[in-house]
Amino acid sequence: MTSPFDLYRGSAGAFDEFIVNSNAKDENWLGLAKSIENLGLIELKRRAIEVEQTQAARGITFTVGGQERTFPLDPLPRIISYEEWSMVELGLMQRIAALEAFLDDIYGSQEIVRDKVIPKRLISNATQFSRAASFPLKEYQMRITVAGLDLIRDETGELVVLEDNLRTPSGVSYVIENRRAMARILPELFENYEIEPVTDYPSRLLASLISQAPTQVSDPLVVVLTPGIYNSAYFEHAFLARQMGVPLVEPRDLFAKGNEIFVRTTKASRRVDVIYRRIDDEYIDPLFFKPDSYLGIPGLLNAIRAGGVTIANAIGNGVADDKLTYAYLNEIVDYYLHQKPLLKNIETYRLEDPDVRKFVIDNVENLVVKPVDASGGKGIVIGSKATEREIEEVRIAIIANPRGYIAQRIVNFSTIPTVVGSTIEPRHADLRPFIVSSPDGRYVVPGGLSRVALNSGSMIVNSSQGGGSKDTWIIKGRSRPRISIAPTFSERREQPIGLATKESAQ
Amino acid sequence: MTSRGSIVLARTAESLYWLGRYMERSESMARILDVHLHEIIGSTNDTEGRWSKQIAKIFAHSDDYSDFDGLAIDLSLDGSLQSSIRYSIERAYENAKSARDAISLEYWELINVAYGRVSKYSLDQFGHGLFTFYSIIKERCAQGRGLAVSTMNRDAAWQFLNLGYDVEQLDILLRLLMAKNESLHTEDWVVVLRSIGGHEAFLRATNSPVNALGAINFLISEKIFPRSILATMRRISAITSDLIRGIDDSQTIKVPSELPRAIVRLENPLATEVDQIEELLDELWSCHLIMCTFYYESFFSPLAKSNFNYPLRSEVWR
Amino acid sequence: MKWRLEIVHTTKYTYQEDVYSSYNEVRMTPKNTSNQLLLSSSIAVSPRASLYNYFDYFGTAVTYFDLHRRHNNLDITSSSHVEIEDPRTRGVRLSPIEMSDPSFMDAFSEYLTTTTYTQVSNGVASQIQSSVSSVETAEDRLSKVVEFVRENLHYRSGITMVSSSASEALDIGFGVCQDFAHVTIALLRSIGLPARYVSGYLYPNKDPEVGESSTGESHAWVEVFVGEWIGIDPSNCVDRTNHLYVTVAKGRDYGDVTPFRGVYFGGQSSPPIVTVTMTRRA
Questions:
Q1: Domain boundaries of chain A, sorted by first residue
Q2: Within this chain, do residues C122 and C27 fall inside the same structural domain, yes or no?
Q3: pLDDT in tens, B110-159
Q4: Pairing of β A348-350 and β A367-371
Q5: Architecture of the domain defined by A349-409
Q6: What is the number of domains present in chain C?
Q7: Helix or strand run (H / E) with residue B215
Q8: Do A287 and C21 make contact, defined as CB atoms within 8 angstroms?
Q9: Which residues of B touch A229 (CB under 8 A)?
Q10: What is the rounded CA–CA span in Å between residue A485 and residue B160?
Q11: According to a count of CB atoms within 10 Å of the terminal CB, is the N or C end of chain A lower?
């Protein structure tokens, strides 16, 4: 019997996570390859369809242009060894610790500027630097409660940081739901592995939020703040509220009074202690930001300043995930922690230096140019794929506003075996790990969200542009088969309630 | 346990209430239209015309319909018509989504899947007709009710959901009675009884053939029939009292006296004249409307009266 | 010259329909500066409200309050005593080489960066840039800018709005003190001179008796860095601000110093009635 992996060759130019090099395969994958061989590709496909139906029935969706879509889950998981992950985990914690200190500093006395480690304009010209939110936090509060960093594996196979997301990073609900769906529908794949669980996340987040409550109340009220049911990540907002057992509120449910925040209930108003918000800074308080924003809660910012309520993440974090700040990450880690970064950045060009700028302008074709303050892949131009006109536009934009852009080397990031039609083919994937910080310490979800570009050769993994996802396994080597992790066969076969109707039986 | 379970946001309460109403409305509409369509087969043109008029008047707010098929199609699938099934399912879905943290996963999944089916449903698809559509709706809604019963905590959220179901049940039955009350055709009353799933219950409870006055009396005041106006009002009264007890300043909130008065009136022997029935229905309808306002003022008011009814303005002067 | 002033600044809003709740910030408390000492200050609000004070990013004293009872008028009274003298300058002056030094530009980047309010067209920017190209000292460059403003902007109220930018005011050719300040700031920044917006009060009478009250006005002027920060008042053609100027707030533009800002739910308001009474106390 031949394995569907026999024909798998990896891809040229990029590191492949299964075929490590021409004469070595990653041993961690062998158990999985064996399970797939036993299962057969046809059955695998059938199960994949079942996964999709289940996700759709549960409403595990995101919204693009008003249309609700499911996030395709590839039935082949991604495997990362525990040994490698332990280092990545340390690197992530180190990076977040440094960025937390950086934010505290620049919204305080700005010593890093005074010591001339970074230029002042890095802050004063950053669009995301929030003067209105420039005040120190209370000692029990964090600025970066939740971070979601984007990592990619470069040509040498090393995981490096592509982007820091410190505002309202999303995707963690898919990590948990993906694992759930895989265990339910493809339990056979789990047989040879001991996999780090991901389900701790909601309780870790809740613990962090509770520990940041402003008063020593025994039972602080935590809420999840969503823009509403039409938001693209509403599923995740509701998911987290449910998993933490806290109310999911919309801005109109909250109001400020005397530097405290209250929620309107059917009984009376209840004081809110901690808000886990999934609304962008500029919509949060119309008194300070967009004055016409119906989404905002007027008075919220002053309640936060006065310590009447804690908000996670803090307002103004965008200045630390500015792409130009990223370019100073080595300096930042060194300045606050006196350490070398454990996770590398991609080589980044700061365009304010005239010589560097000239080099970039002359070589746009071979570089990626990114606006410093955008997120979600907006405005990025990949030189090698851009038209003449796009390249010319980028050159003009850089000259007009050098502070507004950075340039990076184009990384041909790693590929992973992925089910495509009736074969297994290499596809590019990135990885978004999630880090929860609290005054007592940090927790990194083992693995994270692997987003995979489903089109051949594509490096665009965004869910809105044809990206899918993979369950990401952090494994402790090959170990004894574990019985408890996979549900029984009958449990797995159980149809989701509501799908069994006359119609589906016909 | 902490008191956390008892926190219901005003917005969530309102969503749960409307979720219950729209789910009940979808199911009731499906049953009413299904029964009428079945009964029309083999009946006279005269009957069809009369029924079209009655149903169109109370549910479509229109006199334009003379053939029942056209009316049924619109009341089923015309999403722009506020009493249509499609509209109701879409609103049920939105409200379920908005109250997502207060309902069970199982109940949510069912509504989500039903919404997916209904929003894509078209008549020519797979040769499925209206009857298939109604059977999907009735089945899904009944399953939904059952799932809600078996998977949700008996907390305030549950009561708001149930209140919605009961209020809508009352609303629909009162509308049906008002549409048909002038009719003395036996077939009209058979169809009403069937429309609310009470034909066999009537026969078992009364042991007599269907006639107008008997049916009206049964539908209004039969204690052992759970969908009768009396039974529904008693449930509403119990839920409302419970919810009021949960309110911090419950001293100041009282159930409008119209509700207990209406219940007492229904508990006593009913009128026998048709014109007295009409007066009674008017009284019940106005009680229903008073109660609907009451729910808003006592439970959802923090939101209904909130600032968001007024324009948000910003002020920057020099 | 050193003297004491009492300032009473009242603002009265009337709403055509009831307001149900409102959230407000007031920046009406004079600052402590090198030539101005705040002796006392208080803010009173009617209807009554709890007041919360803090200092913002620019060091301005801010008073915040929210109202949750129905009301159809709102009065804010800020009273303060200040002791002011003429600013002392040391006469330190920048050379063009210092001005183009990257570390200078970086240190002052906050007050060299264009904001929404302080934008001028490329044409205007290059016109002013070429007119100062042969001018050596910062102060002479400043004079060129003042001259340009005098020629191209004329004082007239009721034409521009509170949201008007420098380029809009220049296009129209008319404006009030806010516009004069924004245009001047925009031009100064475009030639590499750090400039900031100052809000406060101007005492109208040059030599009053002790105890004499006058009707003052809310005013806006500019501070520019020419080696040290100096105050100029472009709308009154004053090339050095003096003891008649009471400083309340400084920032990049009007948006950073707005004396009163609020959002509320309810009826439309009429333009407020503002009175500033200034009395010499010593």
A1: 19-337+412-505, 349-409
A2: no
A3: 999 999 989 888 877 555 588 889 999 999 999 999 999 999 989 899 99
A4: unpaired
A5: 2-Layer Sandwich (3.30)
A6: 2
A7: helix B212-221
A8: no
A9: 94, 97-98
A10: 39
A11: N
